[in-house]
Amino acid sequence: MSIAYLNGEYLPLAEARISPLDRGFLFGDGIYEVIPYYGGKSVGLMPHLNRMADGLAAIEIKNSNTIEGWKELLDDLVARNSDIGENLGVYVHISRGTDVKRYHPYPEGVEPTVFCFCFAIKDPEPVDRTKVTQYSLVSTEDLRWQRCHIKSTALLGNVMHFQEGYSTGSDEALLYNANNEVTEGSSCNAFIVKDGVIITPIQDNQILPGITRRIIIDSIKADGSLKIEERTVTMDEVRNADELWITSSSKEIAPVTKLDGKPVGNGEVGEIWEKAFAIYSASKFDY
Ligand code: PDD
């Protein structure tokens, strides 16, 4: 049975309750994280906790724990949930808390609501371009807000974009801005490969500072055998790319072989994907 953490207590997930006056429920006023654990070992725990602290500071919600305190809490929660799976995603959600009325300004003296639970995630994909799951995307204009660097629980814009892909039989929606430049996916970051060079859009307010994205960039730079660049990527470049990948804590590095019904590159998973995924997989637990 899945054991959740809610405001200092451990309890069965099905029994967790919050007030309908919680500002997370009323306004999407909160910050969240999804952290992967494989066989009890986390990937990017510290960067996830640091990003969460940055998000809380950006919207002026008190961080009720130290980084060390969070680590202890989440490691403990994972241990308590070992029966639900070998590999777990840990969801952490901190909302501004429960007020006595519905009123927009940040209330004084309200304690944040802290909610965490675990869910089973798939085994990592094989580092084998002939066996890995292939993804198909649709592209669509990014119509979300201008603070996509904040990992807010207000995800309606992302949900609507995800649905655009899902309802047409695709796995994700690849988003581009008014200048025809790629931002990210509705729940992931994006990378292309052209002539052996890996390229990903720069980190600004249009994209989430993805932890998987960061680990990929850092591990590839540390390895030194592949070229990687952070720069603006246009949709024309995507359509002419040799490879397209989407990345997230749950998907790791997922190769995309179809975009808007057309093959990406030669329509097969690329060699650079395999090399990059091997580098990432060998070092992901170091982050
Ligand atoms: N999604 N961009 C968006 C909009 C995301 O929602 C996510 C993650 C990412 C990738 O970030 P990371 O590598 O830190 O997981 C990029 C999570 C997994 C989710 O909402 O379920």
Structure write-up:
The protein is an alpha+beta fold and 287 residues long. The protein folds into 2 domains: 118 residues, Aminotransferase class 4, branched-chain amino acid transferase, N-terminal domain (D-amino Acid Aminotransferase, Chain A, domain 1), CATH 3.30.470.10; 152 residues, D-amino Acid Aminotransferase, subunit A, domain 2 (D-amino Acid Aminotransferase, Chain A, domain 2). 26% of the residues lie in helices and 29% in strands. The protein contains 7 helices and 15 strands. The strands form 2 sheets. Strands 7, 8, 9, 10, 11, 12, 13, 14 and 15 form a 9-stranded mixed sheet that branches. A 6-stranded antiparallel sheet has the order 2-1-6-5-3-4. Helix 5 crosses helix 7.
Supply Rg: 19 Å
| CATH homologous superfamily assignment of the largest domain | D-amino Acid Aminotransferase, subunit A, domain 2
Question: Can you identify the CATH class of the largest domain?
Answer: Alpha Beta
Q: How many strand elements? A: 15
Strand content: 25-35%
Bound molecules: N-(5'-phosphopyridoxyl)-D-alanine
Largest sheet: 9 strands, mixed
| Overall average residue pLDDT | 97
Helicity range? 25-40%
* Total of domains: 2
**Helix-strand string:** EEHEEHHEEEHEEEEHEHEEEH
Indicate the CATH topology of the largest domain.
D-amino Acid Aminotransferase, Chain A, domain 2
Structural class: alpha+beta
Number of helices: 7
Termini separation: 29 Å
User: Shape from CA axes?
Assistant: globular
